[in-house]
Amino acid sequence: MEMILIIILLAIGWFWIDSLNKRERAILLGSELSARFNLQLLDESVACSRIWLGRNRRGHVQFLRTYEFDVSASGNDRLHCQLMLLGNQLGYWHIPPYLQPVN
Questions:
Q1: For residue 44, what is the DSSP state?
Q2: What average pLDDT does the chain have?
Q3: For the residues of 3-43, what is the DSSP string, one character each?
Q4: Which of 24, 29, 64, 89 could tie 54 with a disulfide, CB 3.0–4.6 Å?
């Protein structure tokens, strides 16, 4: 019984650390996407909105996480965006259409 409890605690600890690492990866990718489209990543943060299981190209099961974040084109607007990580790889991203500010 004690061994099962230890295994469960180790699994929870691993999942927690893995989730923190993936969140850092999502922040980096959100920043890169924002910069690519001349947008500002607001709050310098992302929020995980969904976790489920998916399969990679080799058929291995991995966690598929959806992260939400906000960007701004002019500083006066807020665009709601998403990105999905399958394991550590960017699987999908969405930035809605926006008007680019005139300089």
A1: G
A2: 94
A3: HHHHHHHHHHHHHHHHHHHHHHHHHHHHHHHHHHTT-EEGG
A4: 64
